[in-house]
Amino acid sequence: MKPSEKNIKKLERDVSKLIENKLFVGTFKERRYVESLSTYRDIVVIESTDDLVPNMLKAKSAFEKFTNSQWIGITTDSNTDDCLLWVELPSIPLGKHWFQIKGVTFESKEILLELTHVQPFINPDRSFNTTSDPDFPTFDIKEILTYKNFCEAVKFMAIVIMTLFTLTIEIMRYLGEWSIKFSHVVVNLIHVSTPICLGAFEFLSKCVGGLYWLIFVLVRGGPNTPAVPAALMASNKPKQIGYYDPNQRKRYEPLYPNKFKSYTPGNQNYSYEKKSYH
Q1: Residue pair 54/91 in contact by the 8 Å Cβ criterion
Q2: How far apart are CA 37 and CA 119, in angstroms?
Q3: CA pair distance 68, 260, nearest whole angstrom
Q4: Bridge pairing between strands 71-72 and 74-76
Q5: Helix 3-19 / helix 52-66 crossing angle, nearest 10 deg
Q6: Residue 222, pLDDT score
Q7: What is the DSSP string of 2-19?
Q8: DSSP character for 229?
Q9: Mean pLDDT, range 230-243, rounded to an integer
Q10: Buried b / exposed e along 22-59 (16+ C-beta atoms within 10 A)
Q11: Torsion over CA of 248, 253, 259 and 264, rounded to 10 degrees?
Q12: 159-168 CB contacts, 8 Å cutoff, 24+ apart
């Protein structure tokens, strides 16, 4: 390696110990044109009371010892002793911001610090009105409790109350209409489903009753029929009934099926004759 490269590496190590990865609060003040570089640079101001300022001045002295031809992007304000950093920033608004030093870039004409924008700076004392910033509005109770503000508040409350009242009426009307429609639907449903439910209940009851009766018959069995005596069976046969013929003054009594015998009433000597009717 060349001696100049060795010196650069050594300088980078020394400067890194002083300022690299340091987090600080700086004020993005303006953007100026640098004639020696023929370009613009963003100016970030570090207040003289910041702990990083002594390290910045030491880094500047180390850069001045290293070279005299390159422009160093670290200067001081003669009036306030604040430290000015001439850097390249992204598009951020003017004001205080949190920055972080990422490193040092050695260009042919300048030594440039690399800054990273972290976030805008928020003063915690602003909420308690302890800042003297004229752009920050102050809290004054007299400016709030005025007749005009009171009238506006009354109007606003009246509008809110009327809106809530109207909304309540609309909700009640909607619920009333919905309940009427719902009750009508429920009545129709009950009217239609009642016969169906009764029929289904009757069908199920018959099915269950028939099943129980079938089980009862299967378990008990049929009744035993007693034997009928032969005499009763003969006596149970149908008997033929005789009849009287008034024309011949004869009575016919059954002799055997479809055969009859006749006799004349008043005569003890009966005369029988056979007569058959088919």
Answers
A1: no
A2: 29
A3: 172
A4: unpaired
A5: 170
A6: 55
A7: -HHHHHHHHHHHHHHHHH
A8: P
A9: 53
A10: eebebbbeeeeeeeeeeeebbbbbbbeebebbebbeeb
A11: -30
A12: none
Instruction: Give tens-digit pLDDT for 262-275.
Output: 555 555 444 445 45
Cα 64 to the chain's mean position, in Å? 66
- Contact, 52 vs 34, CB < 8 A? no
Q: How far apart are the first and last CA of the chain?
A: 157
- Tell me the C-alpha to C-alpha distance, in Å, between residue 256 and each of 50, 240, 253, 260: 154, 8, 9, 7
67 C-beta neighbours (distance < 10 Å), count: 15
- The helix or strand, by DSSP H or E, that contains position 199, with its residue range, turns out to be helix 147-220
CA distance linking residue 120 with residue 102, whole number of Å: 18
pTM of model > 0.70: no
Residue 115, SS3?
strand
Query: CA 196, CA 190: separation in Å to the nearest integer?
Result: 10
Mind listing the pLDDT tens digit for each residue in 173-225?
999 999 999 999 999 999 989 999 999 999 999 999 989 998 988 888 655 55
Q: What is the dihedral of CA 207, 210, 211, 212, to 10 degrees?
A: 130
User: Residue 105 belongs to what H/E stretch?
Assistant: strand 95-106
Look at residue 3 in the predicted model and tell me its pLDDT: 39
Residue ranges covered by each domain of the chain? 3-122, 140-219, 241-276
Query: What is the pLDDT of the chain when averaged over all its residues?
Result: 76
Q: Count how many residues are written for the chain.
A: 278
